Task: inverse folding
């Protein structure tokens, strides 16, 4: 296969595999990163905006003005709202992140009705810029559905890729193909002596014994936080766990917490290379979120011989909400992502039961999904149809009435589609 054909296939695969994600990372080890970038920027069917990070983009205050200047040269209307923000917002953009994001997203929304691709090249230059990474991460959460962010660089950005992938928010692509295994470049050893289970209350086992001598909950949560990303900085840890403390006292508390973590496990589980902390990759470990996401990706993008068994495996790995019982901001974000993925697995299981004409089992599976998140109107629709298919119209009517009462209590409007279905059922 010649180079042109290979690059064309890789680019078509890239577009296909990027279709559902909001943030797309070109894996640092991808041989065709430059080729895909060139084709993306030269594609006349797309509306692409390009910015290559500068060596000075190590703070959000440096990054934003440079980004705005470059984008305004590519579209003259971009920047009109950002440029009139108050001086105190511009001088401290991280402190006023919400205002910055709202304004930046408003700018993106004015760039026409086409799909927007914001390409951030040389993104590894922001390796030490925790605030830039947080801005891009939150932008991917809040940007319009038609906006995609492409990251290209020589390193894996310190973002919570596992939960972002679980939530269909992110995808990592290598030479056009989705990375499905060893997402952080580490092997997940099922038989490892150290097992970290985040889906549920949050348990840590060493040689099959539950560790419970944490001296508070922070050492245990620190381990989960370190597992969650490829690596973290001390500042990221301090800002997440002790945001109200000045940096010096926060660092002191961090070191105390880290010592308690090592004491509880009996080994120095967090490695430090002078800049970053990560779970020591020389020590075998198992993290359930790795297996959960890898199984999820296989179900979405692979060709499993037994898709039913695979989706059952995904559902079984979900032992409960992520770190159930804690309500820290970073935990709540991950919790929603993994919950969405669990419901996706249940919906696939229900669809397979329906295809096998096992309608009762499909019904029970959808009820499990609603017990997890009652807001899912599309699941209510499927459930009502199943009740009718099973000849249980009275239960369908009762279910809709319960849903209607719930929607009024929570001030959530029901769609015309589900009301029409109810009218058809009672006609």
Result:
């Amino acid at each position: 296969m010649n180079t042109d054909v290979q690059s064309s296939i890789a680019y078509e695969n890239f577009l296909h595999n990027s279709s559902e994600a909001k943030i797309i990372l070109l894996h640092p080890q991808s041989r065709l990163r430059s080729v895909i970038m060139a084709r993306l920027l030269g594609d006349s069917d797309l509306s692409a905006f390009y910015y290559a990070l500068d060596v000075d983009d190590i703070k959000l205050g440096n990054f934003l003005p440079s980004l705005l200047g470059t984008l305004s040269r590519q579209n003259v209307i971009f920047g009109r709202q950002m440029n009139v923000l108050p001086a105190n917002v511009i001088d401290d953009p991280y402190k006023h992140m919400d205002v910055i994001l709202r304004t930046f997203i408003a700018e993106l929304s004015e760039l026409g009705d086409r799909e927007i691709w914001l390409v951030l090249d040389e993104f590894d230059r922001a390796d030490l810029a925790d605030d830039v990474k947080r801005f891009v991460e939150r932008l991917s959460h809040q940007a319009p559905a038609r906006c995609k962010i492409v990251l290209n660089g020589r390193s894996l950005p310190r973002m919570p890729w596992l939960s972002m992938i679980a939530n269909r928010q992110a995808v990592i692509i290598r030479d056009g193909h989705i990375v499905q295994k060893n997402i952080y470049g580490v092997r997940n050893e099922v038989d490892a002596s150290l097992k970290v289970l985040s889906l549920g209350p949050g348990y840590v086992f060493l040689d099959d014994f539950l560790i419970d001598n944490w001296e508070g909950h922070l050492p245990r949560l620190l381990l989960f936080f370190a597992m969650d990303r490829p690596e973290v900085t001390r500042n990221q840890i301090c800002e997440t766990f002790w945001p109200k403390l000045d940096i010096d006292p926060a660092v002191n508390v961090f070191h105390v917490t880290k010592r308690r973590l090592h004491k509880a496990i009996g080994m120095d589980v967090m490695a430090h290379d002078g800049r970053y902390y990560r779970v020591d990759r020389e020590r075998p470990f198992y993290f359930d979120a790795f297996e959960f996401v890898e199984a999820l990706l296989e179900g979405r993008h692979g060709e499993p011989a037994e898709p039913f068994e695979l989706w059952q495996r995904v559902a079984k790995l979900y032992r409960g909400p992520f770190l159930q019982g804690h309500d820290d901001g970073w935990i709540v974000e991950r919790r929603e992502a993994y919950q969405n993925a669990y419901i996706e697995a249940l919906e696939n299981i229900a669809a397979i039961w329906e295809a096998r004409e096992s309608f009762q089992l499909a019904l029970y599976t959808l009820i499990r999904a609603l017990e997890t998140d009652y807001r899912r109107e599309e699941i209510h629709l499927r459930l009502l149809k199943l009740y009718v298919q099973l000849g249980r119209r009275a239960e369908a009517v009762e279910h809709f009435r319960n849903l209607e009462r719930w929607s009024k209590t929570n001030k959530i409007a029901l769609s015309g589609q589900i009301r029409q279905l109810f009218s058809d059922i009672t006609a």
